[in-house]
Amino acid sequence: SALKDETGLVSSGTNGNDSKKFKGDVRGSGVPSRVIHIRRLPSDITEAEVISLGLPFGDVTNLLMLKAKNQAFLEMNSEEAAQNMVGYYSTVMPIIRHHPVYVQFSNHKELKTDNSPNQERAQAALRALSTSHVDTAVAAPSTVLRVVVENLVYPVTLDALCQIFSKFGTVLRIIVFTKNSQFQALLQYPDGASAQAAKLSLDGQNIYNGCCTLRISFSKLTSLNVKYNNEKSRDFTRPDLPSGDSQPTMEHPAMATAFTPGIISAAPYAGTTHAFPPAFAIQPAGLTVPALPGALASFSLPGATRLGFPPIPAGHCVLLVSNLHPERVTPHCLFILFGVYGDVMRVKILFNKKENALVQMSDSTQAQLAMSHLNGQRLHEKPLRITLSKHTSVQLPREGHEDQGLTKDYSNSPLHRFKKPGSKNYSNIFPPSATLHLSNIPPSVVEDDLKMLFSSSGAMVKAFKFFQKDHKMALIQMGSVEEAIESLIEFHNHDLGENHHLRVSFSKSSI
């Protein structure tokens, strides 16, 4: 077969030395192709699971399963879709049933398949999964999804929905409620593409075999406003919100009984074509939640009570920031911007790919906050792309190795906002907005001084207002969110004289 040259080199077992024998495809693996080579698959993998790896990125046009070799080839509808897929999985390792899976470009430009029984099965799976798939290039009407769970035989918790929907993007906020005696949820992503991918892949799927069917539509709301973090509502960008101590209400008669273990089969994601693809986790750095044992109530993950589902495993605090402006980005500007959401320890701009940088935060919660608030925001006219890096720390250059000042250590910087436990900065974390909050203004500095300072960089100042009680603080409204981001980077810690350095953050109110 056409694929002998590629796969004949690989031992069938996953005995850890695949990569040594894998020379054939590794050479070509950097050259983009519509065909993706996937290896180290679990031996009981289904066609649907392999296709699901590709669906968030575009249509899958062909599939070849080599189960004996724990491999598969997936052909995407365009090279661009394939590049997005390989790029995504190079930063977020896909995990299928606790197996890390390796994804790379194949040497082959297209798949030629025969009509063996295996191939017929693959074609049937493709038809079943791609009929619901419309063109993802169409802009999503909203970043907020409305989810109705029909045929609720077992309880579905906010955490379970988070686990399922996190596979398609960072879930920012989620609210669950019962309306017209139906269990429903509203769920907000940072961007329309994630909402679109989740709707396409999950609409009509069952969470458990034969029940708990997801019906998903775009909400008319553009944003969710969450006041409490508890089992009914959560804002992952605001871990500081109070819990509001609401009692869990059992609206559904089955819920009370369903919390006893054993009602849900031990492996609720059994591999039927209609059920949610089995315990399929594309989760940052391979945090796979075990196939939910017994009842869903048994999520016992550290931090689960406070933050809900920890989307990033502890210890993972390095972000990969891409799509930067290579001529304009500096370690300092990333340090100041990411420092709004946590204490930045180190920044490294990649030597031979200056549009990429690694930013190490002081913990995984801060990394999650920075990622959910800044992903998609524009810096130097380009939208930032932020994912979790597979690195656990940023290495400093070795003594005597020149790196053109691209790596900086900020661990002892006096500018960290969150060093002091209980600092009020924790409760003032807001998404980037056109209005900036200024503080630490000395008495001699007047409105015109600040307006002139902020327009000196060419940005537009639309409005200004001192706080009535306290002239040490003010709000200043810039022409756009992008101008506000650049002004914050430029003027945070600006020396205003009299030993006062200006403090700048994003405001939740406008003037």
Q: Indicate the radius of gyration in whole angstroms.
A: 25 Å
Q: In what order do the strands lie side by side in the largest sheet?
A: 10-11-7-9-8-12
User: If classified by CATH, what would the architecture of the largest domain be?
Assistant: 2-Layer Sandwich
Broad structural category: alpha+beta
Largest sheet at a glance?
Answer: 6 strands, antiparallel
Strand content: 15-25%
* Distance, first to last CA: 68 Å
Q: Quick check: average pLDDT?
A: 77
Q: Compute the number of structural domains.
A: 4
Q: Which stretches are poorly predicted, pLDDT < 50 over at least 5 residues? A: 1-28, 132-138, 246-313
Account of the protein in words:
- It is a single chain.
- With 511 residues, the protein is of the alpha+beta class.
- The chain has four domains: 4-130, RRM (RNA recognition motif) domain (Alpha-Beta Plaits, 2-Layer Sandwich), CATH 3.30.70.330; 144-299, RRM (RNA recognition motif) domain (Alpha-Beta Plaits, 2-Layer Sandwich), CATH 3.30.70; 318-409, Alpha-Beta Plaits; 432-506, Alpha-Beta Plaits.
- 23% of the residues lie in helices and 22% in strands.
- The chain has 14 helices and 24 strands.
- It has helices spanning 4-7, 18-21, 23-28, 47-54, 79-91, 117-130, 158-165, 192-202, 253-258, 304-307, 331-338, 364-374, 447-455, 481-491; strands at residues 35-39, 60-66, 71-76, 95-96, 99-100, 102-105, 144-150, 173-179, 182-188, 206-208, 211-218, 233-235, 280-281, 318-322, 344-349, 357-361, 378-379, 382-383, 385-388, 407-409, 435-439, 461-466, 474-478, 503-506.
- The chain has a six-stranded antiparallel β-sheet. Strands 19-14-16-15-20 form a five-stranded antiparallel β-sheet.
- Strand 10 (206-208) and strand 11 (211-218) form a beta hairpin.
- Helix 11 (331-338) packs across helix 14 (481-491).
- The chain is globular, with a radius of gyration of 25 Å.
- Mean pLDDT is 77; it is low at 1-28, 132-138 and 246-313.
- It is found in: Nucleus.
- Residues 34-108, 145-221, 317-391, 434-509 form the RRM domain.
